[in-house]
Design goal:
With 618 residues, the chain is α+β, with helices and mostly antiparallel strands. Helix content is 36%, strand content 21%. It contains 19 helices and 22 strands. Helix 13 packs across helix 17, helix 13 crosses helix 18 and helix 16 packs across helix 17. It is extended and about 130 Å long. It starts with 9 loop residues before the first helix and ends with a helix. About 3% of the residues have low confidence.
Length: 618
């Protein structure tokens, strides 16, 4: 029998490794930016074209590489970060496994130019699909320039799985921001299709908290500064530095939540729950606070080698970290008077009125008593009897048809509503739709086979969604011109998202007059929307577009219609009168797809007579 097991060719092995490390253009951006940070650069520039599908270029002024190191860097598992297995538990840098460059080179055209400070000439290496095509000496300044072109050119099936440019661009921006947060003393610049998206200056102070605040404001927008509450704690097992957002600025999405451990971005649901628990009672249900928390733990207590992307980590003492994070956030919210506090030692009842604060003595009130009063004396009893008799005569006069009181009675006019006819009108006809509201959340109605129970929020979303989608796609949403331009303050990420769908927003009735760094100016809004609702709608719209991952113009319009329906629909807890209930039922079953809301949630359930009878016969 012939041998069945063979070694894979090097290029095939690299392509398989690339499947774990290089998932999309943003994966390349993350690896290259982290390498530039590890190289000690003070200036890093990222240039992207066509959402990274055509070009990803990173330019840094770091240490650079020698000719031999430059060639060896593209070999699998070649690294300068670790020498033994024990080094995996004492990491102080980002990259360490030596898979990234080899994996990237296996699925793209790579051009590397690098030079150390001691050398006169640098090195240029060109690699296509993992195969070195040239290795020459070139003139270049100290540092490294690496270009990645035509990602996944040799794996067409993988390239077809990439999303639209707008989605891939947002993933690149996320990767750029996560690295930029960790290095506030480095100048970062991002250019996409020749348009400058970010230009973040380096911080000049030695105060870590001030540096982080400057970088957060630079990335998220100037309006973020007033929303930040500082967090600071230093213990033997955990050091925390960073900021949380004020409860009043919480949002309906999770977008602005960042955990960094030893200068590495991570995702950790357990620690995230600890932060949310600290906000319990301060934010409404379904809202999420912003936070930017930088944790520093002993490297020996942290394992970052459990996932190829290194965003999932394992701690030795998660419960202790949870308790420290929760109490620290809660303490800071109280310390900066963000959360309500009570002074149990102060008794307000003992406070001296302001008018009496300078008086040395307080006079007691005087009481006058008639010591000679006797209710059994004759004159008192006669007077009391006469008073009672007079009162009795006045009451009897109300029932008599003569006397001066008659005119008084006739002069009284009573307004009354004739409700007898109204009661009959409600009962008139047995074919009227009978509905009632349950817990201000569901609308119940009888049908021939039993009863139907409708979720009023999901049903109204379906109604509004189909109405808006029809108007937007066929005739365009009507708009109302504003007397004064409306300025909406958003984060820079939200600005970039809405900028990509500006044409679709105008079709939906949002006429944008100007787009600034952290503001959008509107001169017209949709007819059905009030000005006070615009801020929340645009924030939710940006989040929905980001999460819906639209690929085509229609999908963006569809997402806008879904967002408007979600924002303007009646919420659970809203009482509805009988006519509003009937209108909701009739409009729902007039929809093309009444069974589900735009997000896929059931709008109603039916309960048959047989099911009801079975419940009573148990």
């Amino acid at each position: 029998m012939a041998n069945q097991i063979r070694l894979l060719p090097e290029n095939v092995a690299n392509q398989i490794a690339a499947g774990e490390v290089v998932q999309r253009p943003a994966s390349v951006v993350k690896e290259l930016l982290e390498n530039a940070v590890d190289a000690g650069a003070t200036r890093i520039e990222l240039i992207v074209k066509d959402a990274g599908k055509t070009l990803i270029q990173v330019i840094d002024n770091g240490l650079g590489m020698s000719p031999s190191d430059a060639k060896l860097a593209f070999e699998r598992h070649a690294t300068s970060k670790i020498k033994t297995a024990n080094d995996l538990f004492d990491l102080h840098t980002n990259g360490f496994r030596g898979e990234a460059l080899a994996s990237i080179a296996a699925v793209s055209h790579v051009r590397l130019r690098t030079k150390t400070e001691k050398e006169e000439l640098g090195t240029e290496i060109r690699i296509d699909g993992g195969e070195i095509k040239s290795n020459t000496r070139v003139q270049i300044s100290t540092g490294t320039v690496i270009e990645v072109r035509d990602l996944f050119y040799n794996i067409p099936a993988r390239r077809n799985f990439l999303k639209g440019n707008s989605v891939e661009t947002r993933h690149i921006v996320d990767a750029f921001q996560r690295v930029a947060f960790t290095a506030p003393k480095i100048r970062f610049r991002l250019v996409h299709n020749d348009n400058e998206v970010f230009n973040l200056p380096p911080s000049q102070t030695d105060n870590l908290s001030a540096n982080l605040r400057q970088r957060i404001v630079g990335i998220m927008g100037r309006n973020t500064n007033e929303k930040l509450v500082p967090i600071q704690e230093d213990t033997e097992i955990l050091k925390i530095t960073g900021f949380v957002g004020k409860p009043s600025h919480s949002k309906k999405k999770r977008g602005e939540q960042f955990f960094f451990v030893n200068n590495r971005f991570i995702k950790h649901n357990y620690l995230n729950h600890g932060v949310l628990n600290a906000f319990e009672g301060l934010i409404p249900p379904g809202s999420y606070p912003a936070y930017y928390l930088f944790l520093e733990v002993p490297p020996q207590s942290l394992d970052v080698n459990i996932h190829p992307t290194k965003t999932e980590v394992k701690f030795d003492n998660e419960r202790d970290l949870y308790a420290i994070i929760r109490s620290t956030v809660k303490h800071s919210l109280g310390q900066y008077n963000v959360s309500p506090s009570l002074d149990f030692e102060r008794d307000a009842g003992l406070d001296t009125p302001y008018a009496y604060k300078d008086k040395s003595t307080v006079k007691s009130p005087s009481i006058q008593v008639d010591k000679d009063f006797n209710p059994f004396r004759k004159e008192y009893s006669v007077a009391a009897g006469a008073k009672r008799k007079e009162t009795l005569q006045q009451w009897e006069a109300l029932y008599l048809d003569n006397g001066p009181e008659k005119e008084l009675i006739h002069s009284i006019e009573v307004e009354a509503e004739d409700i007898s006819q109204q009661l009959f009108d409600e009962k008139e006809g047995l074919d009227v739709l009978h509905t009632f509201q349950l817990h201000a959340k569901y609308v119940a109605s009888s049908i021939k086979s039993g009863m139907v129970l409708i979720d009023q929020n999901a049903a109204h979303q379906r109604i509004l969604y189909e109405d808006y989608l029809e108007k937007v796609t066929l005739e365009g949403m009507g708009h109302q011109q504003l007397l004064f331009p409306l300025k909406v303050t958003l984060t820079s990420n939200e600005i970039n998202i809405l900028k990509d769908v500006k044409t679709d927003l105008e079709t939906a009735g949002f006429h944008i007059a100007e787009i600034g760094e952290d503001q959008i100016t509107l001169d017209a809004i949709p007819v059905s929307i009030a000005e006070k609702q615009v801020d929340q709608i645009l924030e939710e719209l940006a989040g929905n577009i980001e999460n819906e991952v639209p690929d085509t113009s229609f999908s963006q319009i569809d997402t806008i219609a879904k967002s408007l329906a979600k924002s303007l629909s009646i919420k659970a807890g809203t009482p509805l009168n009988s006519k509003e209930q009937e209108s909701l039922v009739n409009k729902l079953f007039s929809c093309k797809e009444p069974n589900y809301s735009p997000s896929g949630k059931k709008t109603f359930i039916t309960i048959s007579i047989e099911d009801l009878e079975q419940q009573f016969n148990i």
